[in-house]
């Protein structure tokens, strides 16, 4: 279906008609050869909540490093996803969606976004079809005044038509004239490879920052916490997922099995009851589904024990937040 869409890259030049900006990328399927040179750098993905940032990073890395749900504020941390080649190392960062923070946890989340502006070699500003503005003006100004290359990725074009697509390109071109616009579908992998090759072009010459077999900067327990949190985001309504944090207290790897014990933290007694559900059925479902994902992720059998604890107002408590890795 996507074949009908014209893949586009906008080379920012003023005074040309929209059609002149369209360059059909014929074939970039070759592996970039850098002639003895090594390139490396930070490529940070930022944008509003729910636009598809985590979906794109996972597509680049080829692993489910970031959890993905249809709910906003799924990602709470800055997560590094490393793509290694013989002569390049791309350090992608997935970041939380930009919001106006209402409590301490969200302040920390926005601090991760801020840090992503500070060390980027290339910025990937992701918007989705139909979106009109970034939820924070100061972050938006950082993008429009950016001295480093900005790729504006217009995502979810599988949900649009050609006319809507053209209108959106025009809109964003006006708003962010310093960016190259690429229309993509992170979910269907449309134009993802092309964006990757453009990133390689833009990266500075540099030795690698991390060992070439490293995939991320996060420890195993982080991915356990996230797999469990994903199931909570999927299965519970309203405020519940936002009041939950997961802490893995035990991660013990044996030859054929990984034994894990994790605690699901909520803010109030009533939330604890909801998480556990009738005769424990709701919690059991979370456990079964998370375990299935973890067995795939670690390629090993997993035994997962889940507990629920009340940790009053952890979202607003600096010490608790620090304990859960929301450092500032
Ligand atoms: N139709 C369509 N849906 C997409 C595409 N990319 C992502 N999605 C969906 O959009 C929703 C949000 O995706 P995420 O990758 O979690 O978005 P995010 O920007 O990381 O969200 P936060 O972490 O909450 O900021 C999920 O339901 C995805 O399946 C796309 O190209 N097309
Ligand atoms: Mg995300």
CATH superfamily of the largest domain: P-loop containing nucleotide triphosphate hydrolases
Low-confidence stretches: 1-31
- What is the CATH topology assignment of the largest domain? Rossmann fold
How far the N terminus sits from the C terminus, by CA atoms, comes to 45 Å
What's the CATH architecture name of the largest domain?
3-Layer(aba) Sandwich
Largest sheet: 6 strands, mixed
Helix content: 25-40%
**Rough shape?**
globular
Enumerate the strands of the largest sheet in spatial order, edge to edge or round the barrel: 2-3-1-4-5-6
- Number of self-contained structural domains: 2
Secondary structure topology:
Layout (H helix, E strand, L loop, with lengths): L38 E9 L5 H9 L17 E7 L2 E7 L9 H15 L3 E7 L8 H8 L5 E6 L6 H14 L3 E5 L8 H11 L17 H16 L9 E9 L3 E10 L2 H8 L4 H18 L2 E10 L7 H6 L5
Parallel strand pairs: 1-3, 1-4, 4-5, 5-6, 8-9
Antiparallel strand pairs: 2-3, 7-8
Helix pairs in contact: 6-8
The structure holds guanosine-5'-triphosphate and magnesium ion.
The site of guanosine-5'-triphosphate has 23 residues, from helix 1.
């Amino acid at each position: 279906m996507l074949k009908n869409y014209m893949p586009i890259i906008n080379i920012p030049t003023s005074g040309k008609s929209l059609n002149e900006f369209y360059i059909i990328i014929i074939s970039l399927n070759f592996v970039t050869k850098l002639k003895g040179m090594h390139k490396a750098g930070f490529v940070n993905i930022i944008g509003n909540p729910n636009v598809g940032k985590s979906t794109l990073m996972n597509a680049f890395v080829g692993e489910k490093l970031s959890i993905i749900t249809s709910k906003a504020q799924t990602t709470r941390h800055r997560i590094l996803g490393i793509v290694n080649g013989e002569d390049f190392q791309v350090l992608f960062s997935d970041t939380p969606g930009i919001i106006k923070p209402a409590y301490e946890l969200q302040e920390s989340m926005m601090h991760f976004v801020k840090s992503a502006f500070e060390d980027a070699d290339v910025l990937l500003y992701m918007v989705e079809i139909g979106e009109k503005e970034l939820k924070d003006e100061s972050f938006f100004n950082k993008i429009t005044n950016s001295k480093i290359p900005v790729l504006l990725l217009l995502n979810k074009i599988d949900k649009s038509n050609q006319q809507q697509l053209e209108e959106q390109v025009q809109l964003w071109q006006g708003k962010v004239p310093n960016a190259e616009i690429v229309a993509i579908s992170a979910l269907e992998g449309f134009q993802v490879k092309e964006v990757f090759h453009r990133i390689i072009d833009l990266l500075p010459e540099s030795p690698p920052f991390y060992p070439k077999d490293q995939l991320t900067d996060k420890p195993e327990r982080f991915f356990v916490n996230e797999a469990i949190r994903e199931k909570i985001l999927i299965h519970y309504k309203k405020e519940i997922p936002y009041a939950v944090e997961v802490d893995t207290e035990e991660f013990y790897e044996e030859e054929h099995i990984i034994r894990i014990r994790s605690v699901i933290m909520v803010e109030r007694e009533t939330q604890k009851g909801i998480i556990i559900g009738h005769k424990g059925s709701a919690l059991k479902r979370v456990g079964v589904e998370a375990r299935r994902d973890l067995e795939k992720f670690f390629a090993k059998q997993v035994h997962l024990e889940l507990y629920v604890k009340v940790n009053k107002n952890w979202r607003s408590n600096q010490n608790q937040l620090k304990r859960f890795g929301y450092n500032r």
